[in-house]
Amino acid sequence: MKNTIYYGPPGTGKTYFIQNKLKDYTTIEITDSLISSSLSNGKEWLVIALAILQNNNIATNTHISSKLTQLGISTNSTVSTILTRHSTTDTPLGSYDNPRIFVSYNGSWYVDIDLFKSLESNIYNKYILNSSKKRYEFVTFHQSFVYEDFIEGIKPKLNTNSTNSIEYEIQDGIFKNICKLARDCAPQKCAIFIDEINRGNVSEIFGELLSLIEPDKREGQPLELKVTLPYSKVPFGIPSNLDIYGTMNSADKSISNIDIALRRRFEFVPIKSNPDLLLNMYSSTTINPNDIDGINIIELLRTINSRIELLLDSNYNIGHAYFANISSFDDIKAVIVYKVIPLLEEYFYNDPEKVQLILNDLDENGDLDINALYIHKEIDASSLLRYFGDYDIDNKKIYSIKNIDEISKESILKIYEH
């Protein structure tokens, strides 16, 4: 059994990592015969899609190729070519075929399920919708999430008799329901995934079950422990085949909500920003992250993060996922202007000059560089006010992001080229 929380800066792929694990708790029953027979209609993309779906909708080129070889299936084009030509990701020199159904991330591929459903509704209904077995729950904690939502509580229910009166009944919450499912599915593993676990009041949400989630307190374990639930008055324990996962943004101030009791009961696994992962993300495309219109986005991200660590700490790094879908200089500008700089503004809310330091916008004398991204103008107090009275009013700098249309390639290059 696993009690694991993945934590790290924004954009490092924590939620994606959790979503990718859903396949371990889902059974999609695509048969080998269905994959083999699908080639008869001439849709090579369908053969590839079914091979990915059979692997619970995540697979590498190598896995797909091995599967086709195992089934004795030959395609006119290579697996890599089919994936790229039907990919959702645009590349500068790419040519594509419909449907654009394959999504690339971190060296693997998955199928756009919504598009697949619209194209192959019969296969979707028979093999994915009706035969797939979901053995997990996914929930996001927030400030209003409470024990009654998670474990059990008294909830209103409309009585549909002639009076349409409101009645109240004890209803099970998400966690209690997944515990029931885990008992029914034993010995198969079930899981609950809690995104943004630090945004809720964890002690209040888990209540008396906080002690029961420990591995040795689970049902069937040496120190098995049960509690009597306050509403239903029934004894309750947590099954041993239930895994509990959470994600936590290390740059979020609400991280302080995670108390020592929770830290002792979970393993905390860091998910760090890793610019080198961009090489894997773009490996199945024609894009070279070391040279996108002359800009090295790996070095760009590494330099930004090094300066953040110097001025703040690594918990506030920019995640590599921010640079995961870039194919041109315009894309780079958009990421910097609309994602990176606003995040830096939040980090350095009371000291915006540090945003300029990170972006290398100031020269050796502290003056604004001609290619600065985060610019400022100084308001002269004496030019606006004739009389200061007893107030000590200094000149003030007003900061803003340069208009995206005015940003040159040199504005980006100067961030990491000294």
From TrEMBL:
Domain ATPase dynein-related AAA: 133-266
Alphabetical list of Gene3D superfamilies matching this protein: P-loop containing nucleotide triphosphate hydrolases
Highest taxon of the lineage: Bacteria
A molecular function GO annotation: ATP binding
Pfam families according to UniProt: AAA_5
Name of this protein: ATPase dynein-related AAA domain-containing protein
